[in-house]
Amino acid sequence: MNEPIAPNAGSTPPPNPSALELVPLAATVSEQAAAAPPPPSTPIPMRANAPSPVQRFEFTGSGSEYFKIWIVNVLLTIVTLGIYSAWAKVRRLRYFYNNTRFAGSSFDFHGSPIAILKGRIIAVVLIAGLQVPILNFVVLALYLAGLPWLLQRSLRFHMANTSYRNLRFAFLGTVKGAYAALLIPIGVLIAAGAISGLAMWKFPVVGSILLIITMLGFYAVGPYIQYRMRRYYTEGAHAGASPFALHIGAGQYYVVYLVALGFMMALGAVAAVVLGFTVGLDMMSLAKGGNLPVGKMIITGILVGSIYLAMLAVGPLVVAMLQNTIWRGTSLAGKRFKSDVPVPKFMLTWLGQTFLTVITLGLYRPFAVVKLARMRIEAMAWTGSADTMIAVLREANQKAVGSEVSDLMDIDIAL
Amino acid sequence: MTQQSSAPSVRARLYAATGAATARPATLVASPETGAVLLTLDGGLDTRQFAVRTLDVSERFTHATRRITLPGGDVLEVDDGAQLGRVLAAAGLHDAPVTRWQHSWRMVLVSVVLSVIAAVAGYLWGLPLASDHLARWVPTTWTASLDDVVIGQMQRQDAMATSELSAERQAQLRRAFTASVASQSDAPPVKVFFFKMGDTPNAFALPGGSIVFLDGIVKAAPSDDALVGVFAHEFGHVIHRHGLRNLLRTAMVSAVAAWYFGDFTSIANAAILMTQLKYSRDFETQADDTAIEIMRAQKLDTKSLAELFRRMRDHRGPGERDHDHGDAAKEPPAKVKTKLPSIPEFLSTHPDIERRIERFEGVTTTAPKP
Hints:
The complex is a heterodimer of chains A (415) and B (370). Chain A has 415 residues and is α+β, with helices and mostly antiparallel strands. Helix content of chain A is 66%, strand content 10%. Chain A is built from 14 helices and 10 strands. Chain A has a 10-stranded antiparallel β-barrel, surrounded by 6 helices. The relative contact order of chain A is 0.15. Chain B has 370 residues and is α+β, with helices and mostly antiparallel strands. Chain B is built from 11 helices and 11 strands. In chain B, helix 3 packs antiparallel against helix 8, helix 5 crosses helix 7 and helix 7 packs across helix 9. The C terminus of chain B is likely disordered. At the A-B interface, helix 1, helix 2, helix 3, strand 3 and helix 11 of A face strand 1, helix 2, helix 3, helix 4 and helix 8 of B.
């Protein structure tokens, strides 16, 4: 663990000069608000004993409403052979952004479907190119070499097209930064893979061992790459001119994945014990000349099968834990965010919602998506006040305007 | 300017384009005669007028804040989205058709029905048609190089051993195979390989036209006629490019399922597999057609092939009888699956073996003279 975390050390003033300058601005904001009747915003009751007010995120969407939007999107996407999916994505994002409320207003998304369509066309061409012999090596090399650039474009597109109170967010991370974050770890892995592949060709045994080490290395390096990408993403993201800051180290990512590994191993051990125990009993009864207990075997099968199904919940486990870790370690203008997704409850909800999605052949999916999104969004809060947020956005807007990008170069790749 | 009391109005917040980030309370009133809306800031004296055509209005959702981007970049936020809809409608601006659709349960029901119809039609005809058209664009050299990779892997695999059949026996079989399809004028080049994998009786075709026989099936065959029949079946897979078409269909089904299920794709894999199985069974039936056609033309005994199927079924035992013989496209090294007895046909890669045996039993060996 590189850095100590102090998730709620936010009660002390941050050592950020810009945050201190905000105070007079915030005062003028309050004056203006006093001159006119207060906007129908800020529904957060401030208790007298609360030292610093917390701005909670709120989600106002509903499953039945999103179902209606989703099914119309599905139909139009099928009818247009997939082309409408870019427009569908914009409508979906706007639904979720517009329904996410924070300090009396909500977010908005302004991305053009054409940019998303371009990204999808690029993806289809890449995937097709990967199938062509010989050419596929060229395509793969181009893709890997261009991935950081695509990532930077995509992040820029998303941040620049996200707004709050008529102010755009911005992503100021550079292409160089993206290469630094991604290329070195990926390059090392590719080199290791190539070396073990070559070794495999000449010396199969040595090569196999190297390949196994490479694969283990991939799993071992995975959380680190994810952490580097998150750092690049968070530090490039700006509200106005204020950058977001990340206060965690790669160690925290490893903690999350170790917990996930532990969860899998614990369930695997339980399954093994159940299976070993019942099979042992069956063998004993067989040895004594009894019949094979088919009914009991089926029950065992169902039991072990459901343990394996429960293992699927490792996905939401990682999602919830990572969200909590990342956002507790993120600050804006010196004020930390909070995230308290209840991990076990989130996993159980995910399993239940997934079950319903499967037995309804996917028709329940929009309800599931809304339910899980609500859990994740409403777990979030910011420890600054609404006035601070307004001041942050306002103080720095001139800089953010300069970062607006032309639609021509916008590309969105879902990574 | 005074307003008619009947004109609908709604409360709004104005966020200036200059980036103040502070909300200024305002009221928006419809002006039906002019097709415009009038905006008055609280406490302000001036009223700004905008033709509704110049407004960029966000979509109506039940609870979400709606936004109007005014000419010049100022943004109005409105919490009462439904009332804003009435104001805009009074001024002559109505919801887009898509928005109206998704607020009507009747249109939603129609969408569900149409989507289901489109999905079933796409699965039964659309995807097969699209993948088959796409297959025509794939040159045979690509699929041939794919075969080389698979054969190379098999040679390196422990489970796969060099065939124990003598070189003469292999040459004899190859001659019989070639002779059986010699009359096929546009026959693609076919390569026959022999491998040994325990005593598994199986044979399969790869996408590029390579046909692999395992020693087990050569030993189990009651006569060489049966082996020519097996070859003819695999040859059917080759001439119809089943391997490639299967790959393309699988890719398309997976892509569609990934889009439809989104985050829940991992669960959807079982459903994807089910859909592939139907395509696979269709291909097997078509390959059987080719086998019967060729065997008839060569006046070979199709009953010998029925007998071979019976032996293969008994070799695997009832538990796995569905997984006999020839997995055309994917995973040539037999995946030995343990399954519960009597698997229904819809869960199987191949048509019911009993029905296939009956079919080959019933075929008359003498071909009708043309």
